[in-house]
Structure to design on (956 residues):
């Protein structure tokens, strides 16, 4: 069997195991069906017998469920590598990773791999032991990460892994949804955004947000940009005009719209609308700019423009961008975090994540082999 | 491994498929039947609607067209008038037996020729005070026996009272002396004097209603003031005494004024009474008609097309701007138009803010749950409650309870005559507002729900509060939808009759709800309404044949009024839609 063939086979196996597990997990929750459980167990056993490391790793992770999560595991290379010192072969490590993904799917705790470079940066946003439930379903599991000031941080991960949910917690947009429960804390400049004394509108004024779909308001371009200032009660026409120009310039839209600021914003093209939304988010000088898949509804040219814009905004603003386009994350971000099923998998400088990830899961994801 | 990877077993039927499908299923496999079904439904619906509209349009516009006057010398009578309509009827054999032989023969011929049917014409003959009827039937066999002429100088007179008069001019009299005796001369003289006499007539009218009305009103106010002081402090109090003297003085002055106006009116009347027109009816009776009583006269068979159009337009103008006369069968419907428009406006002013705010709470603030769903169902059900129930509620709650309380607090001096404690335009409009509230709430809720979540989120993410988001982003976007709901509510309210019959619509209102007397807007007054007017004309009129065309015309006006209100709202909506993004600068 060729190497490729082997990789494919083992991957297939791991994938099937994972999916089966996930399905069975649901089944088990629903019906407590013993039969399915036993099927899964036997399947896992079979898998484990093929790969001794997976059994040991899952045993290890189950044995330390209550390990203090704030502490970042520094010796990850050790865990990742084999315990007896001999390095794993590529195939083995893949299989090992895949079954760990299966363990995550089963709901077993997982310790994030965080590179020391991130910890060295001054943080503007500190997310600590953050968990979130939509009703009874837990969506985020014990997430700890610091967002460095003045840098671009990308959050990547397969669909439904909780990327958007996470950044929507920063400005408490999830308050709008009924039946959301959170644990842990998010601190913006050292102040908890969930503190009862904190006014949620104040938090949102400090964190500009841009959404997946461009959502300009049905008013003029000018009014859209100065909306944040208007609702703060600013009426000074000259100041508003200055701010409008500043934000539109920052969003690289000024030259295109400066002659018709009174035109309805809905008449702009999709890319222009999204840049307008960025300009709107920039008004009032927020400390953090949260971009929730800002380019997913745009064509490549518009995407390029937005990406250039993000690069330019870095330094002046702290940008957190959620994306499922890995090239985009690689292009625009300084740091990248990988989320999987509500857990932080690996978080570190973008070049490291993309070219030298520490975890095989990360490598598998950034090379497009799962997710 | 293979166990796991093998595809799930699917049931494959081993029997050969059955191609002999049922005809119904085969039919549904093609597009045409469904096309015919849906298209047919649309055609039927449109045909019914446009049929009704066309009927109303044709009949409603035809009402005022001046027809030629025919004169029939029949075996037993002479008939002169306008042919209103014709129909086939089956005469009973007994009445044919009783006919004179010649007529009987003619009838039997006609019966044989048309399988037992006979044609007959309805002729508007007028001259009610002489004949006690407005219309007469003339049958085809009679006409064939008699003589048909179109008299050259037959005059049609529309009068202030007694309906129309059809006759031939005999003389024009001033102070009882004939001024002209040949028909053309009489017509010329009539045209010379009539406008002047009518002008005096209108002056009399104005003096009677306006000036005498004001004097009466002042007298009434003075008495009411006295009465309220009496109720507060008693008849022995010095204030009452003082006021009593004042009122007596004022009454004296007012009576003097009243007398002088009265005299003025008498003078004008006497002047008008000098002019009379003497006419001869078809059967030879002569009749003197005072010129002041003639609203409009025209020689029907002399008119060319332009003349007919002039008469037509003058009648339409009168219809739209004048007050009704002759138990609403003649004259205009202006008070009803005014009442309907004013009522609809008041209703809109009441229902829109209330409905929009209620819908805002339901959609934006209330937590979704059983209670809100129940409320929504209740509101939708409210739209299905028969309108007469709202009328009964309006009468009981608004008129008697609320209005009665207002009367007992603010208008005690007038009791036992009710002021607000009876049907009035305010209570009617509030009742209609209640009736149309579900329409507004439902439409507003839909409009709010149609505002995309992303836009709201965008606003919240900018740090806007809920109210700021509503006011600056959601409401402007929902506004066209809210206006649509308002339009629907207005159309529904303007066409509603049943609740109005209980809460203040009357067949003849002496005064409009808005006039020149302080406080100018009189919300307690009863009013005329087009819908109620239609009902009254169609079913309560003593002269139903004359009322029938007016029913169509009034209906046409009502539909046009609703159309105008709707168009106005549509235009407003379009304008707001265009301008919505500059509203906030």
């Amino acid at each position: 069997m060729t190497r490729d063939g082997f990789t494919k086979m083992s991957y297939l196996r791991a994938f099937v195991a994972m999916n089966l597990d996930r399905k069975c997990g649901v089944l088990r929750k629903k019906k407590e069906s013993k039969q399915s459980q036993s099927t899964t167990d036997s399947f896992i056993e079979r898998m484990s017998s093929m790969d001794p490391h997976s059994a040991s790793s899952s045993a290890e992770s189950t044995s330390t469920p209550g390990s203090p999560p704030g502490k970042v595991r520094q010796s990850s290379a050790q865990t990742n590598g084999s315990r007896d010192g001999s390095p794993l072969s590529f195939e083995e490590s893949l299989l090992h990773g895949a079954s760990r993904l299966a363990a995550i799917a089963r709901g077993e705790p997982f310790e994030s791999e965080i590179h020391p470079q991130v910890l060295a940066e001054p943080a503007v946003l500190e997310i600590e032991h953050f968990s979130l439930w939509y009703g009874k379903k837990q969506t985020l599991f014990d997430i700890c990460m610091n967002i460095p000031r003045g840098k671009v941080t990308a959050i990547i991960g397969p669909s439904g892994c909780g990327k958007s949910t996470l950044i929507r917690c920063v400005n408490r947009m999830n308050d709008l949804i009924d039946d959301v429960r959170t644990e842990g804390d998010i601190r913006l400049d050292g102040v908890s955004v969930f503190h009862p004394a904190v006014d949620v509108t104040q938090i949102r004024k400090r964190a500009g947000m841009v959404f997946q779909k461009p959502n300009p308001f049905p008013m003029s371009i000018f009014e859209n940009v100065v909306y944040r200032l208007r609702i703060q009660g600013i009426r000074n026409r000259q100041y508003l005009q200055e701010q409008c120009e500043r934000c539109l310039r920052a969003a690289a839209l000024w030259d295109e719209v400066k002659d018709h600021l009174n035109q309805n914003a809905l008449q702009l093209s999709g890319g222009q609308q999204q840049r307008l939304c960025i300009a709107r988010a920039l008004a009032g000088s927020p400390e953090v700019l949260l971009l929730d898949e800002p380019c997913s509804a745009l064509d490549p040219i518009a995407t390029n423009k937005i990406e250039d814009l993000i690069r330019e905004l870095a330094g002046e603003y702290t940008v957190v961008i959620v994306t499922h386009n890995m090239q985009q994350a690689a292009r625009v971000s300084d740091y990248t975090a990988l989320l999987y099923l509500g857990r932080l998998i690996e978080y570190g400088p973008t070049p490291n994540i993309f070219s030298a990830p520490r975890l095989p899961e990360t490598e598998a994801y950034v090379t497009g082999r799962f997710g | 491994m293979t166990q796991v990877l093998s595809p799930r077993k699917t049931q494959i039927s081993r029997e050969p498929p059955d191609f002999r499908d049922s005809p119904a299923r085969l039919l549904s496999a093609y597009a045409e039947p469904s096309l015919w079904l849906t298209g047919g439904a649309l055609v039927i619906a449109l045909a019914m609607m446009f049929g009704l509209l066309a009927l109303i349009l044709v009949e409603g516009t035809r009402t005022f067209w001046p027809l030629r006057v025919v004169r029939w010398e029949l075996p037993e009578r002479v008939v002169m008038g306008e042919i209103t309509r014709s129909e086939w009827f089956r005469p009973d054999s007994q009445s044919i037996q009783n006919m004179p032989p010649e007529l009987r023969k003619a009838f039997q011929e006609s019966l044989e020729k048309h399988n037992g049917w006979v044609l007959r014409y309805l002729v508007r003959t007028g001259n009610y005070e002489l004949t006690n009827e407005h219309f007469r039937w003339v049958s085809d066999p009679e006409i064939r026996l008699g003589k048909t002429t179109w008299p050259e100088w037959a005059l049609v007179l529309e009068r202030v009272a007694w309906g129309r008069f059809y006759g031939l001019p005999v003389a024009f009299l001033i102070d009882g002396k004939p001024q002209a005796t040949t028909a053309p001369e009489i017509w010329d003289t009539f045209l010379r004097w009539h406008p002047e006499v009518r002008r005096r007539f209108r002056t009399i009218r104005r003096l009677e209603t306006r000036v005498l009305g004001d004097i009466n009103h002042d007298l009434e106010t003075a008495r009411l003031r006295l009465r309220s002081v009496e109720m507060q402090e008693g008849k022995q109090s010095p204030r009452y005494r003082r006021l009593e003297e004042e009122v007596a003085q004022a009454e004296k002055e007012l009576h003097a004024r009243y007398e002088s106006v009265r005299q003025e009116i008498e003078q004008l009347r006497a002047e008008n009474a000098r002019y009379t027109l003497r006419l001869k009816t078809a059967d030879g009776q002569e009749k003197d008609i005072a010129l002041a009583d003639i609203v409009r006269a025209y020689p029907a068979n002399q008119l060319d097309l332009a003349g007919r159009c002039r008469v037509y337009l003058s009648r339409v103008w009168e219809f739209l701007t004048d007050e009704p006369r002759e138990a609403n069968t003649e004259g205009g419907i202006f008070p009803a138009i005014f009442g309907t428009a004013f009522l609809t406006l008041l209703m809109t002013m009441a229902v829109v803010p209330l409905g929009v705010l209620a819908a805002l709470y339901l959609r934006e603030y209330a937590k979704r749950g059983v209670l809100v769903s129940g409320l929504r169902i209740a509101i939708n059900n409210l739209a299905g409650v028969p309108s007469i129930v709202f009328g009964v509620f309006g009468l009981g709650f608004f008129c008697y309870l609320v209005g009665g309380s207002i009367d007992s607090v603010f208008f005690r001096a007038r009791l036992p005559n009710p002021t607000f404690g009876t049907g009035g335009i305010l209570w009617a409009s509030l009742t209609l507002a209640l009736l149309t509230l579900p329409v507004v709430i439902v439409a507003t809720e839909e409009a709010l729900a149609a505002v995309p979540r992303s836009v709201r989120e965008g606003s919240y993410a900018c740090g806007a509060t809920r109210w700021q988001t509503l006011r600056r982003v959601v409401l402007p976007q929902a506004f066209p939808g809210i206006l649509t709901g308002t339009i629907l509510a207005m159309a529904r309210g303007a066409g509603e009759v049943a609740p109005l019959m209980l809460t203040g619509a009357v067949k003849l209102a002496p005064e409009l709800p808005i006039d020149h007397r302080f406080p100018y807007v009189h919300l307690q007054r009863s009013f005329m309404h087009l819908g109620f007017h239609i009902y009254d004309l169609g079913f309560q009129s003593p002269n139903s044949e004359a009322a029938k065309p007016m029913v169509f015309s009034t209906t046409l006006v009502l539909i046009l009024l609703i159309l105008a209100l709707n168009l106005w709202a549509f235009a407003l909506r379009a304008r707001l839609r265009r301008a919505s993004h500059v509203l906030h600068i």
